[in-house]
Protein backbone atom coordinates (compact mmCIF):
# COMPACT_ATOMS: atom_id res chain seq x y z
CA UNK A 1 0.00 0.00 0.00
CA UNK A 2 2.80 2.41 0.88
CA UNK A 3 4.54 1.69 -2.43
CA UNK A 4 1.32 2.29 -4.38
CA UNK A 5 0.81 5.60 -2.56
CA UNK A 6 4.33 6.73 -3.44
CA UNK A 7 3.82 5.74 -7.09
CA UNK A 8 0.51 7.61 -7.30
CA UNK A 9 2.08 10.69 -5.73
CA UNK A 10 4.97 10.57 -8.18
CA UNK A 11 2.63 10.21 -11.16
CA UNK A 12 0.44 13.12 -10.01
CA UNK A 13 3.52 15.31 -9.75
CA UNK A 14 4.63 14.31 -13.22
CA UNK A 15 1.18 15.06 -14.67
CA UNK A 16 1.17 18.58 -13.24
CA UNK A 17 1.19 20.96 -16.24
CA UNK A 18 4.00 23.54 -16.51
CA UNK A 19 3.20 26.98 -15.14
CA UNK A 20 3.60 28.69 -18.53
CA UNK A 21 0.43 26.97 -19.74
CA UNK A 22 -1.70 28.93 -17.25
CA UNK A 23 -3.07 32.17 -18.78
CA UNK A 24 -2.10 35.53 -17.32
CA UNK A 25 -4.74 38.12 -16.51
CA UNK A 26 -4.61 41.71 -15.32
CA UNK A 27 -4.38 41.44 -11.50
CA UNK A 28 -6.13 44.77 -10.87
CA UNK A 29 -9.86 44.26 -11.33
CA UNK A 30 -10.44 48.02 -11.22
CA UNK A 31 -9.10 48.41 -14.76
CA UNK A 32 -11.81 46.02 -15.98
CA UNK A 33 -14.44 48.33 -14.50
CA UNK A 34 -12.80 51.26 -16.27
CA UNK A 35 -12.70 49.35 -19.56
CA UNK A 36 -16.31 48.14 -19.49
CA UNK A 37 -17.57 51.44 -18.11
CA UNK A 38 -15.86 53.47 -20.80
CA UNK A 39 -17.00 51.05 -23.49
CA UNK A 40 -20.59 51.26 -22.26
CA UNK A 41 -20.60 55.06 -22.51
CA UNK A 42 -19.33 54.83 -26.09
CA UNK A 43 -21.91 52.20 -27.02
CA UNK A 44 -24.65 54.29 -25.41
CA UNK A 45 -23.55 57.31 -27.45
CA UNK A 46 -23.76 55.18 -30.61
CA UNK A 47 -27.34 54.32 -29.55
CA UNK A 48 -27.16 50.82 -30.95
CA UNK A 49 -25.33 47.51 -30.50
CA UNK A 50 -24.15 45.51 -33.50
CA UNK A 51 -21.86 42.54 -34.11
CA UNK A 52 -19.07 45.08 -34.69
CA UNK A 53 -19.71 46.47 -31.20
CA UNK A 54 -19.32 43.01 -29.69
CA UNK A 55 -16.13 42.43 -31.68
CA UNK A 56 -14.75 45.78 -30.49
CA UNK A 57 -15.48 44.83 -26.87
CA UNK A 58 -13.61 41.53 -27.23
CA UNK A 59 -10.74 43.34 -28.95
CA UNK A 60 -10.55 45.93 -26.16
CA UNK A 61 -10.56 43.19 -23.49
CA UNK A 62 -7.65 41.29 -25.04
CA UNK A 63 -5.77 44.54 -25.67
CA UNK A 64 -6.01 45.26 -21.94
CA UNK A 65 -4.61 41.81 -21.14
CA UNK A 66 -1.47 42.53 -23.20
CA UNK A 67 -0.24 45.14 -20.74
CA UNK A 68 0.26 42.89 -17.69
CA UNK A 69 2.63 40.26 -19.16
CA UNK A 70 4.48 43.00 -21.03
CA UNK A 71 5.06 45.02 -17.86
CA UNK A 72 6.09 41.98 -15.81
CA UNK A 73 8.58 40.78 -18.45
CA UNK A 74 10.10 44.26 -18.74
CA UNK A 75 10.52 44.39 -14.95
CA UNK A 76 12.24 41.01 -14.97
CA UNK A 77 14.56 42.21 -17.77
CA UNK A 78 17.19 39.47 -18.23
CA UNK A 79 15.12 36.85 -16.35
CA UNK A 80 13.19 35.45 -19.32
CA UNK A 81 9.75 34.04 -18.47
CA UNK A 82 8.11 32.00 -21.28
CA UNK A 83 4.68 32.30 -19.66
CA UNK A 84 4.51 36.09 -19.99
CA UNK A 85 5.96 36.11 -23.48
CA UNK A 86 3.62 33.33 -24.62
CA UNK A 87 0.39 34.82 -23.30
CA UNK A 88 1.39 38.37 -24.15
CA UNK A 89 1.91 37.15 -27.72
CA UNK A 90 -1.41 35.28 -27.77
CA UNK A 91 -3.37 38.25 -26.45
CA UNK A 92 -1.50 40.57 -28.80
CA UNK A 93 -2.19 38.30 -31.78
CA UNK A 94 -5.92 38.11 -31.02
CA UNK A 95 -6.06 41.87 -30.55
CA UNK A 96 -4.22 42.46 -33.83
CA UNK A 97 -6.51 40.20 -35.87
CA UNK A 98 -9.70 41.69 -34.41
CA UNK A 99 -8.34 45.23 -34.83
CA UNK A 100 -7.58 44.56 -38.50
CA UNK A 101 -11.09 43.22 -39.07
CA UNK A 102 -12.63 46.26 -37.36
CA UNK A 103 -10.38 48.58 -39.35
CA UNK A 104 -11.61 47.03 -42.59
CA UNK A 105 -15.15 47.85 -41.46
CA UNK A 106 -14.28 51.37 -40.27
CA UNK A 107 -10.99 52.98 -41.33
CA UNK A 108 -11.31 55.85 -38.80
CA UNK A 109 -10.37 53.42 -36.04
CA UNK A 110 -6.75 53.64 -37.21
CA UNK A 111 -6.40 56.91 -35.30
CA UNK A 112 -7.51 55.20 -32.10
CA UNK A 113 -5.07 52.35 -32.69
CA UNK A 114 -2.26 54.89 -33.02
CA UNK A 115 -3.21 56.51 -29.70
CA UNK A 116 -3.40 53.10 -28.01
CA UNK A 117 0.07 52.11 -29.31
CA UNK A 118 1.51 55.43 -28.10
CA UNK A 119 -0.02 54.81 -24.67
CA UNK A 120 1.41 51.28 -24.50
CA UNK A 121 4.87 52.51 -25.51
CA UNK A 122 4.73 55.29 -22.91
CA UNK A 123 3.74 52.72 -20.27
CA UNK A 124 6.64 50.45 -21.25
CA UNK A 125 9.11 53.34 -21.06
CA UNK A 126 7.80 54.25 -17.59
CA UNK A 127 8.37 50.66 -16.44
CA UNK A 128 11.95 50.74 -17.74
CA UNK A 129 12.57 54.02 -15.90
CA UNK A 130 10.99 52.67 -12.70
CA UNK A 131 8.07 55.12 -12.83
CA UNK A 132 5.27 52.69 -13.59
CA UNK A 133 3.23 53.85 -10.57
CA UNK A 134 3.81 57.56 -11.13
CA UNK A 135 0.73 59.78 -11.39
CA UNK A 136 1.60 60.81 -14.95
CA UNK A 137 1.91 57.24 -16.17
CA UNK A 138 -1.27 56.12 -14.40
CA UNK A 139 -3.19 58.92 -16.10
CA UNK A 140 -1.73 57.81 -19.45
CA UNK A 141 -2.82 54.23 -18.72
CA UNK A 142 -6.36 55.35 -17.84
CA UNK A 143 -6.50 57.51 -20.97
CA UNK A 144 -5.44 54.53 -23.07
CA UNK A 145 -8.04 52.24 -21.50
CA UNK A 146 -10.75 54.88 -21.92
CA UNK A 147 -10.15 54.78 -25.68
CA UNK A 148 -12.68 51.96 -25.42
CA UNK A 149 -15.40 54.64 -25.56
CA UNK A 150 -14.58 56.05 -29.03
CA UNK A 151 -13.69 52.50 -30.13
CA UNK A 152 -17.22 51.35 -29.31
CA UNK A 153 -18.69 54.37 -31.05
CA UNK A 154 -16.47 54.12 -34.12
CA UNK A 155 -16.91 50.37 -34.55
CA UNK A 156 -20.68 50.70 -34.25
CA UNK A 157 -21.32 53.80 -36.38
CA UNK A 158 -18.34 53.65 -38.73
CA UNK A 159 -17.30 57.21 -37.84
CA UNK A 160 -15.90 59.34 -35.04
CA UNK A 161 -17.41 62.54 -33.68
CA UNK A 162 -16.36 65.36 -31.38
CA UNK A 163 -18.83 64.07 -28.83
CA UNK A 164 -17.23 60.61 -28.90
CA UNK A 165 -13.80 62.10 -28.24
CA UNK A 166 -15.29 64.35 -25.55
CA UNK A 167 -16.69 61.26 -23.82
CA UNK A 168 -13.18 59.78 -23.96
CA UNK A 169 -11.75 62.88 -22.26
CA UNK A 170 -14.55 62.92 -19.67
CA UNK A 171 -14.02 59.24 -18.82
CA UNK A 172 -10.28 59.79 -18.53
CA UNK A 173 -10.75 62.75 -16.19
CA UNK A 174 -13.22 60.90 -13.97
CA UNK A 175 -11.39 57.60 -13.63
CA UNK A 176 -8.03 59.35 -13.21
CA UNK A 177 -9.46 61.23 -10.23
CA UNK A 178 -9.29 57.96 -8.29
CA UNK A 179 -5.50 58.11 -8.55
CA UNK A 180 -5.39 61.12 -6.24
CA UNK A 181 -7.81 59.72 -3.66
CA UNK A 182 -6.11 56.31 -3.53
CA UNK A 183 -2.68 57.93 -3.06
CA UNK A 184 -4.00 59.72 0.05
CA UNK A 185 -3.56 56.39 1.83
CA UNK A 186 0.22 56.60 1.40
CA UNK A 187 2.37 58.80 3.61
CA UNK A 188 4.53 60.09 0.75
CA UNK A 189 1.47 61.20 -1.28
CA UNK A 190 -0.97 62.03 1.53
CA UNK A 191 -1.38 65.73 0.63
CA UNK A 192 -4.79 66.93 -0.58
CA UNK A 193 -3.44 69.83 -2.62
CA UNK A 194 -2.49 67.87 -5.79
CA UNK A 195 -5.94 66.28 -5.85
CA UNK A 196 -7.70 69.62 -5.43
CA UNK A 197 -5.62 71.15 -8.25
CA UNK A 198 -6.39 68.18 -10.51
CA UNK A 199 -10.13 68.38 -9.89
CA UNK A 200 -10.15 72.15 -10.53
CA UNK A 201 -8.36 71.63 -13.85
CA UNK A 202 -10.72 68.79 -14.73
CA UNK A 203 -13.77 70.96 -14.02
CA UNK A 204 -12.34 73.65 -16.31
CA UNK A 205 -11.82 71.11 -19.12
CA UNK A 206 -15.32 69.65 -18.73
CA UNK A 207 -16.78 73.17 -18.72
CA UNK A 208 -14.98 73.93 -21.99
CA UNK A 209 -16.29 70.73 -23.56
CA UNK A 210 -19.83 71.67 -22.58
CA UNK A 211 -19.39 75.27 -23.74
CA UNK A 212 -18.35 74.08 -27.21
CA UNK A 213 -21.35 71.71 -27.37
CA UNK A 214 -19.23 68.58 -27.18
CA UNK A 215 -21.12 67.27 -24.15
CA UNK A 216 -24.75 67.37 -23.03
CA UNK A 217 -25.21 69.29 -19.79
CA UNK A 218 -26.26 66.15 -17.89
CA UNK A 219 -23.23 64.28 -19.22
CA UNK A 220 -20.95 67.13 -18.14
CA UNK A 221 -22.57 67.19 -14.70
CA UNK A 222 -21.78 63.50 -14.24
CA UNK A 223 -18.24 64.59 -13.35
CA UNK A 224 -19.76 66.07 -10.20
CA UNK A 225 -19.67 62.48 -8.86
CA UNK A 226 -15.87 62.82 -8.66
CA UNK A 227 -16.22 66.10 -6.77
CA UNK A 228 -18.72 64.58 -4.34
CA UNK A 229 -16.38 61.64 -3.78
CA UNK A 230 -13.47 63.99 -3.08
CA UNK A 231 -15.65 65.87 -0.58
CA UNK A 232 -16.61 62.63 1.18
CA UNK A 233 -12.97 61.53 1.32
CA UNK A 234 -11.96 64.92 2.76
CA UNK A 235 -14.70 64.76 5.39
CA UNK A 236 -13.91 61.18 6.41
CA UNK A 237 -10.20 61.21 5.60
CA UNK A 238 -9.21 59.40 8.79
CA UNK A 239 -11.47 56.46 7.90
CA UNK A 240 -10.36 56.53 4.27
CA UNK A 241 -6.67 56.34 5.19
CA UNK A 242 -7.06 53.61 7.80
CA UNK A 243 -9.81 51.43 6.32
CA UNK A 244 -9.07 48.04 4.80
CA UNK A 245 -8.31 48.15 1.11
CA UNK A 246 -11.34 45.95 0.38
CA UNK A 247 -13.59 48.64 1.87
CA UNK A 248 -11.90 51.30 -0.27
CA UNK A 249 -12.42 49.20 -3.39
CA UNK A 250 -16.15 48.97 -2.64
CA UNK A 251 -16.26 52.72 -1.94
CA UNK A 252 -14.55 53.62 -5.22
CA UNK A 253 -16.57 51.07 -7.20
CA UNK A 254 -19.91 52.49 -6.05
CA UNK A 255 -19.00 55.99 -7.16
CA UNK A 256 -17.65 54.66 -10.47
CA UNK A 257 -20.84 52.69 -11.17
CA UNK A 258 -22.95 55.76 -10.37
CA UNK A 259 -20.90 57.85 -12.80
CA UNK A 260 -21.09 55.19 -15.54
CA UNK A 261 -24.86 54.96 -15.14
CA UNK A 262 -25.40 58.71 -15.35
CA UNK A 263 -22.95 59.26 -18.22
CA UNK A 264 -24.39 56.37 -20.24
CA UNK A 265 -28.05 57.22 -19.71
CA UNK A 266 -27.45 60.91 -20.41
CA UNK A 267 -26.39 60.26 -24.03
CA UNK A 268 -29.29 57.94 -24.82
CA UNK A 269 -32.30 59.30 -26.72
CA UNK A 270 -35.79 59.20 -25.25
CA UNK A 271 -36.55 56.19 -27.46
CA UNK A 272 -33.86 53.91 -28.88
CA UNK A 273 -33.95 53.50 -32.68
CA UNK A 274 -35.64 50.29 -33.85
Structural class: mainly alpha
N-to-C terminal Cα separation, in Å?
A: 70 Å
* Helical percentage: over 70%
The backbone outline, from C-alpha atoms, is globular
Oligomer kind: single chain
List the secondary-structure elements in sequence, H or E.
Answer: HHHHHHHHHHHHH
Organism: Hyella patelloides LEGE 07179
Transmembrane segments: 20-45, 51-72, 84-104, 110-128, 135-153, 165-184, 196-212, 218-236, 248-268
Pfam families: YwiC
Protein name: YwiC-like protein
Which key terms come to mind for this protein?
mainly alpha, 274 residues
Walk me through the structure:
α2 runs parallel beside α13 (245-266), α3 (51-76) runs antiparallel to α7 (148-157) and α7 (148-157) runs antiparallel to α8. This protein is globular. It has helices spanning 2-15, 30-46, 51-76, 82-105, 109-128, 135-145, 148-157, 162-182, 193-211, 217-221, 224-235, 237-242, 245-266. 34% of the residues are buried. Residues 1-12 have low confidence and may be disordered. It has one domain (29-266). The protein is mainly α and 274 residues long.
What's this model, at a glance?
By secondary structure, this protein is mostly helical. The protein has helices spanning 2-15, 30-46, 51-76, 82-105, 109-128, 135-145, 148-157, 162-182, 193-211, 217-221, 224-235, 237-242, 245-266. 76% of the residues lie in helices and 0% in strands.
Amino acid sequence: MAIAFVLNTTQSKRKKPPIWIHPTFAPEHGVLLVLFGAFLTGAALAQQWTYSTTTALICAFFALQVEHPLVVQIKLRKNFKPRYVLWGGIYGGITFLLAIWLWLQSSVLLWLYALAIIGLIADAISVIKGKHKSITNEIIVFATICLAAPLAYGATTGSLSLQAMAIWILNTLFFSSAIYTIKLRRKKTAAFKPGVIYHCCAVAIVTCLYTFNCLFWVTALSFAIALIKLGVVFTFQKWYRQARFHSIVIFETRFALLYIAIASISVLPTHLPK
